What we know:
By secondary structure, this protein is of the alpha+beta class. The chain contains 17 helices and 42 strands.
Amino acid sequence: MRHLLTTTFHRHNHRLPAILHHLLIRHYRAPKPPAPPKPPKPPQKPQSFTLHDATWEDPYSWMSHLNDKVAMRHMDIYMEQEEKYIEAVMSDTEKLQSKLQSEMASRLHFDLSTSPIRWGPWLYYKRVEAGKQYPVLCRRLASLNEQFISNKDPSGGFDFVSGKKIEQKLVDYNLEAERFGGYAYEELSEVSPDHKFLAYTMYDKDNDYFRLSVRNLNSGALCSKPQADRVSNLAWAKDGQALLYVVTDQHKRPCRIYCSMIGSTEEDVLLLDEPAENVYVNLRHTKDFHFVTVNTFSTTFSKVFLINAADPLSGITLVWECEAQAHCIVEHHQGYLYLFTDAAKGGQMVDHHYLLRCPVNASSCPRIWERVFDDDRDMVIEDVDFCNTHLTLIIRENCSFRICSVPLPMPARKEAVRLKELNPIFLPLPDHVSQIWPGPNYDYYSSTMRFTISSPVMPDAVVDYELSSGNWNIVQQQNLLYERTRILYGTTSSGGIANGSLNNLKSDFLNEIKSEDDNLWNCLSEFYACEQYDVSSYDGVMVPLTILYSRKNKNKNQNPGLLHGHGAYGELLDKRWRSDLKSLLDRGWVIAYADVRGGGGHGKAWHHNGRQHKKLNSIKDFVSCAKFLVENEFVQENKLAGWGYSAGGLLVAAAINSCPDLFRAAILKVPFLDATSTLLNPILPLTAADYEEFGYPGDIDDFHAIMKYCPYANIQKDVLYPAVLITSSFNTRFGVWEAAKWAARVREHAIYDPKRPILLNLTTDIVEENRYLQCKESALETAFLIKMMES
């Protein structure tokens, strides 16, 4: 019986595991995935506002009550919650962020020094010492340049072979940081024309203004005076014996000009005090240091005055005035004043800048200014620069930028001439130039002029053009192909071209030069395509769109995309090569730039047609470009993101309000989101240019236009919004409360989807001044975009 029972038991025992497994499967409950983190909900304290014929309610207006201690305590709690929320949402991207940060850091172009700037007998430059956060401003005699660059350790500044001290340290900004609470940010820096003094302004973070200091460059000591706070501008006079500077009022309006005699114990002399609250003051010296020009302007007028630099206390003389605000720069060259301006002609607005001139000693009152060049729609002058022997012009032909020069003095003619008649020398440039920046070019008596050339497919190139001989040198540019940068310390990578070959260059010859010397520009167009399109906006206006993508990773209708926009203040959209975007390009992303109305590069009318009550044009232009990318299969549907900085944040946020289903994600960096409240009750000081750009709420037409485009006022209800990462800072023109209010209201009104979070990333430091923080922030933004597209 025992044997029978044992046999029976063993006969059925092999079935038990299967039965148990079956029972376990039936009763097994998979663990629930962790619940997605819930966004913070700040308290609502509704407050009503009425203006003109409108009344609206703002439940989050308390966030901007900086003097309300209770409100600020609630704000602190809310900011802590936001910090925890973004950490929780992005926690699964920590490895990706670390990888991206390593990628971006490896591409950072850690120069030993900036490109040396020649001025008189000296070469001026900034360099970074090992282990230091901030640079050191130095100079060395150009005559000792060869000895300097032959040293293995040029930072030592001493040639042990010859026994000569080669380098002179002028300002150590690490020591300046100790003066200013651990932070060193310089806004202005001007060496006196006799090279004996340096006047510079440092940001005082505790008081939120710039402080003026003057340093004796021979002794290295700070001068006892002038030392002034809230300084916005400065100019040397009297061959370095006098310094003129502008001081702002408590609303940061530049309004007073003082003159300080260096070495004198007397009080600084007040030269100008502008009492009108809507009038702003600016000054600069002419490049030959013969005059100091004073600009006063408001929304209704612009004036330019001259001060004799040899006798700055002798008074100021009016040389130009016009109605409405205008850009006016006056230069002096061999007895003539040259005025570069976009002021209206005969009461009619002009679409671009033009150049005028008149003798310095003109006896007529008002002065009679004669035009230098005839208007030429095919060659629009964007900027000018003078030296003693040449006039250089940055010109625009359609959407292409070029640089040319003409010898000075120009022929004495009473009538304006076409630029082409002067046989300008066109300087060679790479393909796809998006912007040209004139360099400091301090040395008026040097015929070498420096420019920075920018392109979406090329790291910025700092180029010296020798205008007399036609030679040109790329003095600094990162080489991403060989993971190195063109070496500084006085050496250059040369691409010399004879003068004869540059004279009257035609397009065919330019192409020949480019084909031979493409490698000199370190252009990346072999790997990344750059294409230009004209996109029809809602009203038929053609909007320029630049599209950038990896030739290797382009797949039709399968690529995610990132569309950039700005469209404000008549400023050019920044389309420079950004090494952080390489991480997206190499992962198959399409990068696009929409030159919407309100921005620059296409004339004043283009700017005016995208500002104030026409601001909706720029928003609709951006939407049209976004639709073009999807409809033409550059970007996969539901994989398009928007990117906007400052006023560009307003553009992208307003476009999201208009078409929330068009975008899958967006990056808003220090955005301007609550235009209605900010323009109506500014907490941080605004300028006349801000109101000219976005409108005056006191004007009923402007008010209604603001209410139509304001991102905060037009958030849709019960609609699915894209995922948005908002980056804001406590050191920014637009307060943190704007970003916080917008985030809270979108979460309140829109359909909640944890896969489309609204995130707020707050920083306490000025990221632009710290490369580590730049990489960290860019890695977070890139990881956010990748996560949102893959979720």
